[in-house]
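Thread title: Can someone regenerate the structure for this chain?

I was given the following input by a collaborator and told the matching structure tokens would be attached. They weren't. Posting the sequence so someone can regenerate them.
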Amino acid sequence: MTKIIVLGGDGFCGWPTALLLSSEGHDVLIVDNLSRRRIDGELGVQSLTPIADMPERIAAWERVTGKTLGFANIDIAHDYDALRDLLAAERPQTVVHFAEQRAAPYSMRDAGHKRYTVDNNINGTHNLLAALVELDLDTHLVHLGTMGVYGYDGDGLELPEGYLDVSVAGPDGTSYPRSILYPTQPGSVYHLTKSLDQLLFQFYARNDGMRITDLHQGIVWGTQTEQTRLDPALINRFDYDGDYGTVLNRFLMQAVVGHPLTVHGTGGQTRAFINIQDTVRCVSLAVANPPARGDRVRILNQVAETHQVRGLAELVAEVTGAEVAFVDNPRKEAVENTLSVSNATFRSLGLEPILLRDALLAETLEIVDRYKDRYDAEAIPAKSLWTKNTRPGVVKKKIADAA
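Best answer:
Regenerated them for you:
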């Protein structure tokens, strides 16, 4: 049995990951300061699915499986002593790190939200690294990063798994081979913090021999996993609002409630996608395959496929009959881009990812239909602006009226 601490284990990806790891027989302790729930209150929105409080979630898991989950309420970004003391007491073989503010739009709302995202994400990551070194723990750190660190410049090159092999010409004309971190081009403050995480990981792996796996994940769609389906109190989050709702889940929500599918700009943005069930499978595979001490940071692309946003909208419209509305893009980004991504390592480890063509949209549509009375139409538009020159992604009145 492996002792695993899941930081951010109350969140959209953290909760189903904690359940899967527990179901596999690991001894799992969740650490979370419940900040995501407080952000719901701040934004005046709620998960479309009703989320039980943490004691009820843990009790339901024990009731249906006989397995126990531990829980500690710690703000890892600001209570270093509590984090260090917990790590000292538990001495985990693995720490899975989800404890970062994860929404790009939320990170761009204003100066306060930019500062919060940097403060929370960078402090939390560095406190964790510093504490593991201080305690001399040989713990495998698995971190959930994002494909968004690379930006979307549309040059058509396949994104490798973290590193780029280059040759540097010396003063005498000799060519020196080097393997460097693939250059980042973050498109938001949130993505910037994930880029800075990479430098922290690189330093601590080289300086202190830490074993680190950094998972560069695509956009997650879907809600339920095998474990969250076991009891209503275990159900996962479903975010649909303009700050936290991921694009495909937003489209499916809009289709069910009769709202036009809001495509930003031309919809020519190409993104990487992965189903939530594959997210948790990938984390489990990463936990089971740690790098050796002294290895460089292991960077894996956690993606299944790529799609253009307007193509996704057309797919959902075809399945549901929804109308598509092209709205202003609140982000500062390329109007159109291509994207090619290598996911060779997870494929080699046995992952056979769920693809959109596998028709699992139906389950998400069913979830939305079951809880549609909880949705708030005012929460749908994307209103966080990247610059003073961008505008909210709001459906024009005449289109909304027609719908």
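Residues 398-403 have pLDDT under 50 and may be disordered.
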